[in-house]
Each structure stands twice: as structure tokens, then as C-alpha cells.
UniProtKB/TrEMBL annotation:
Belongs to the TMEM192 family. It comes from Vespula pensylvanica (Western yellow jacket). Its main location: membrane. InterPro entries: TMEM192. The chain crosses the membrane at residues 27-49, 61-80, 107-127, 147-167. It is a multi-pass membrane protein. The keyword Secreted does not apply. This is Transmembrane protein 192. The lineage of its organism: Eukaryota, Metazoa, Ecdysozoa, Arthropoda, Hexapoda. Keywords: Membrane, Transmembrane, Transmembrane helix. It is found in: Membrane.
Length: 248
């Protein structure tokens, strides 16, 4: 690599010429499909499972399957956060902020529901510790597996719309192939105008939402510039090392 390449401005890096697609749809789709399959399995266990003596087995099988689902959601959350961190470094600050809740919600809900399942299991085992197998095999509607399926249905009523909305946003983002926010003049001009407007007034005359949005933009822009300063420092160190090698 030539020295001139290291001297190129960091803010005019490769994303200016080559748009990098956000490839998080496949991993999110895996989590979404597994969640839908888990809901279908629960309905089968409740409605058409033929053998009453195996109702306890279906209860524990379903708990194991949900633990696996939580692991999938956790891996999905880790991958998406890593991809979106790179996206923020590239300068797509508005998209990063608009999808922030979509990133956090599934793992939060799945973890909360795991706590609910644990609490339910403790209550059921405590109240039916002498005849738990008979309670599982009862032909009543409020059996352990029915409780679990009801909770899982409520869980997916929250997670599935979030995943679907996120997938739609990512597909639209990849189709539009926008420039980074820090390179769009209208974004920078609106950011500058908002900053001057807020600094020109005494007290909090702005609405809270506008002030919070401005502060978030400022924080994102600071992070973006900090990350690019790190890249620039790395390039300078490499260039200085090469220069010393040549002098020797």
C-alpha cells in the first residue's frame, strides 16, 4: 500500500464509493422462523397431542425448546449489535438510532419471559409437589404446558412484529443505498441549525423531544468522529513506521 493511500482523509473512506449492505436479515430470519415454529409446536402439544400420559414430557420438552430459543435470540442480538456498531462507524447515525429499540427489544423480552417461566415452574412445583405428574396429565385447560404456551403466545405477539418491522427497515435501507448522514448536506445543515437555535435561547424553550433528539445527534456525531480519529491515528502510526524503516 502506497503512502498516498494512508494520507487519504478518513472521512472519504470506502463507503463513499462502495455501499456495504447491512446483512442482518438472514440471522434475524432464523430467530423469527424458530419462534414461529415454537409457537406451532406449542399449539400441537396443547390441542392434538394424543397421549395424556405424556403431558409432563411435553411440558419439559417445551421448556427446553424455549431455552434454545433464548440462546438463538442472544446470538442474534450479539451479531446485530456488532453489525450496527460498524454501521454507526460508517456514519449512518439516523438509521442506527431509529433501529436501536428493534435491536434491544427481542433479547429483553425473551429474558423477561424466561424469568416468568422460572417463576411459573416454581409456583407449580410448590403447589403440586406431592402429585405433580397427576396434575400434568389432567385433562383440564390450565395444565402446565397450557400455561407455557399462553405465555409464549404473548411473548411472540411482542417479538414477531419487532422482527418483521426491523427486516422491512433493513431491506428498504439496502435498496435505497443512502449516503452516510455525516456526508449529507441537509443532515449537517439541520444539525447545525438546531445547535445554534438551542444555544441562542435562554432556558429550556425547546420541547423535550427536540432537545433529546439534538443531544442524541451530538453524541452520535462525537462517537463517529472519535472512531475515525482512531483510524486516522492508526494510519499515521503505520506511515511513521514506514518512514523510519526507509530512513534506516
Amino acid at each position: 500500500m502506497d503512502d498516498e493511500e494512508y494520507l487519504q482523509p478518513v472521512l472519504t473512506s470506502q463507503e463513499e464509493d462502495n455501499f456495504q449492505k447491512l446483512d442482518t436479515v438472514p440471522i434475524v430470519s432464523i430467530s423469527l422462523v424458530y419462534g414461529v415454529a415454537l409457537e406451532i409446536i406449542g399449539i400441537v402439544f396443547v390441542s392434538v397431542w394424543p397421549e395424556e400420559e405424556n403431558k409432563c414430557d411435553t411440558y419439559f420438552i417445551y421448556l427446553y425448546l424455549h431455552c434454545l430459543y433464548w440462546l438463538i435470540v442472544m446470538v442474534t442480538d450479539y451479531v446485530i449489535k456488532a453489525k450496527h456498531h460498524t454501521l454507526r462507524i460508517w456514519g449512518y447515525l439516523d438509521f442506527y438510532q431509529s433501529t436501536y429499540q428493534h435491536i434491544r427489544t427481542p433479547l429483553f423480552v425473551a429474558s423477561l419471559w424466561n424469568t416468568c417461566y422460572l417463576l411459573l415452574a416454581v409456583i407449580l412445583h410448590h403447589t403440586h409437589k406431592m402429585n405433580y405428574e397427576e396434575y400434568c396429565r389432567a385433562s383440564e385447560w390450565l395444565t402446565p404446558v397450557n400455561y407455557i404456551v399462553i405465555l409464549t403466545t404473548l411473548e411472540f405477539m411482542v417479538i414477531v412484529p419487532v422482527y418483521v418491522n426491523y427486516i422491512k427497515r433493513v431491506i428498504r435501507f439496502n435498496r435505497l443505498r443512502p449516503l452516510p448522514d455525516v456526508k449529507r448536506e441537509e443532515w449537517l445543515s439541520s444539525f447545525t441549525q438546531d445547535s445554534y437555535a438551542s444555544s441562542g435561547e435562554i432556558g429550556y424553550h425547546h420541547r423535550g423531544s427536540n432537545l433529546e433528539e439534538l443531544l442524541e445527534k451530538q453524541a452520535d456525531l462525537i462517537r463517529y468522529l472519535r472512531d475515525h480519529n482512531v483510524q486516522l491515528s492508526h494510519r499515521i502510526m503505520i506511515l511513521a513506521s514506514r518512514q523510519r524503516t526507509r530512513e534506516v
